[in-house]
Amino acid sequence: DxxxxxxxxxxxxxxxxxxxxxxxxxxxxxxxxxxDIWAGEDLHIRVPASLLQEVKDSLDQHMISYKVLIPDVQxxxxxxxxxxxxxxxxxxxxxxxxxxxxxxxxxxxxxxxxKSNSExxxxxxxxKTIENRTMYYLKISQPSNKPKKIIxxxxxxxxxxxxxxxxxxxxxxxxxxxxxxxxxxxKFLQNLDLYVLPVxxxxxxxxxxxxxxxxxxxxxxYMNGTCYGTDLNRxxxxxxxxxxxxxxxxxxxxxxSGPESEPETRAVAHFIERKKxxxxxYLTIHSYGxxxxxxxxxxxxxxxxxxxxMQVAEKAAAALxxxxxxxYEVGPTSLILYNNSGSSRDWAHMIGIPxxxxxxxxxxxxxxxxxxxxxxxPTCEETM
Amino acid sequence: DSDNVSRKYHLELVLEDVLDKDSTxxxxxxxxxxxxxxxxxxxxxxxxxxxxxxxxEADNTFYNRIKSLEKELVAENIPDSHGNVSPEMQPIHLLAxxxxxxxxxxxxxxxxxxxxxxxxxxxxxxxxxxxxxxxxTILLHEMVSQEIIPWQMTVLWxxxxxxxxxxxxxxxxxxxx
Lengths: 384, 177
What we know:
By secondary structure, chain A is an alpha/beta fold.
C-alpha cells in the first residue's frame, strides 16, 4: 500500500479526485472526507496495493501530478512496533528471526529448538570442522511406522552469505510453528523427513563475524599457514578441479588439495552418501543473485531428468514471485551463471539424488552479501 | 554483432530509481567490448526515454550539511556487517555507488560482473573551491572469480556539476591477521 500526495489545481481535478475516492472507497488521510478536498490544498490518499496501478493511471490520464509520500505503509507500521513483529511467539521464546545471529547463538538456538519441540526435532552430530568445531544438523521427523523419504537442506557453505543461515533458522521456525495448523505442512511431514544443516562452514562463519565480513571459504591452513581457506563449494567430488576453480590458495575459488580434502566437505558427503537412496531432494542455500540453479556447473550437457528439474524449479520461482514480486532466474549454472566444478549440488545429483538445487537468495547486488536485516523476513517468507 | 576484434550488445532496459521504486525510465543502450585489448573500457552509448528526476533539493541539503561540518567527515564500513546504513550516511553510500559505477565500467570485460560490496573507509578532503571531495576505499565483488577487490577512488561532487572520479586505483589485498 502507498500513500500518495497531490495538490489539485483546478475544480475539474478536484471533482475527479472526489469521484475516485468515492467510487474506489479510498482511505483519505488528509482531508478526511472527499467533500473537503479543495484546489490548492494538500491531499494525502492511502491506496491499497491492488488498486495502485489503476489509481496512478487515472491520475496520469487526468494530468494530475502526484508524489509518493509513503512507498510502503506496512513497512512503516512494522517499524513503529518493533517487538511485535517476531520475537515473542517464536520457538524458542524471544529469539529474533529477523536479525543475524552469531554462531554461539545459533548453537544455543539448536539446543533450545530440540528441547521445546522434542516430539518432532532431534539434533545430530555431523562432523567436525578444520578448527575442530562441531557441525550439527536438525532432523525434523514426525514419528510414524511408514518409511519416509528425505529432503536435505544446508545453509552457510560460504561464510559471508549471512542471509543463508538466517533462512535455515527461519525455515525451521516456520515448520515448527505451523505443522499442526497448516494442512500443507502436515501432509508434507507425513511423507517426508527434513534434515536441516543451519551452518555448514562454521569456522568461516565465525571468521566473517569476528575478523573479515566478506570471507567466503573455510579456514583450512595451507602453505605453512601463510594462506587460508578452501572454497567448500568447489571441493566436492564432481568433476573436481576441472573448471571455474583455482589451484592457488589465495583465490576465493581455491578447490582444495583434492576432492573432499576438507573435513567439512567429508562430513556432508559421507552422510549424504550413506542416506542417498532415501534422499529425494538436495537443497543448498547461498546468496546473492536471485537464482534457482540446477545441475551442472561443470558442463552444459543437461542432466538426465533435466525437464523435470526445470519444471519444479520454475514452479518454485513462480510461487516465490507471487509473494513480493521478486524475480528469480532459473536454469543450469553453466548456462546462466558461470562454469564451476566440485559443487555440492552437482555432486548430489551425480550420485543419484534426483532433485538437486542451489538457491541464490536476495538481492541482485544492491547490498549483495551485506543484506540489511529488514530484508530477512521478506526474503525468508517468499523463499518459504 | 561481432568479429574477432569487438562484440556489440544491444540492450533494452528499465532504470529504476533506488529511492523510489515506482519511478522508472526506459533506456536503450549499445555496449561494445574490445576483445583484442582488455585494457580499454567498453564503449557505451545510450538513450533515455524521458527524464531523470530532479534531485536539486536533496542535493543542496546534503551539500550544505557537509560544507558546514567543522571537522572533515570520516566513516567506515558502509553498510555495516548487518547491512545497515544510517540516514546520515545514505548520501555518502549513494555517492560511492555512482562513482563505483564509473570504476566498474572502466574495468569491465565480457567476463566480469562487478558489484559494490561495501565502503571500507571514506574520508572527506577539505577543498578551497566549491567542490566536495571524498577519498573512498571501496570493496568490489567480482562474481565470476568471487574475489573481493579493494579499490581506492577520489570522488569530486557538486550539486550542479555532478560526480567526477578524479583518481582511482586498484589496491593490493592485504590479509588482516
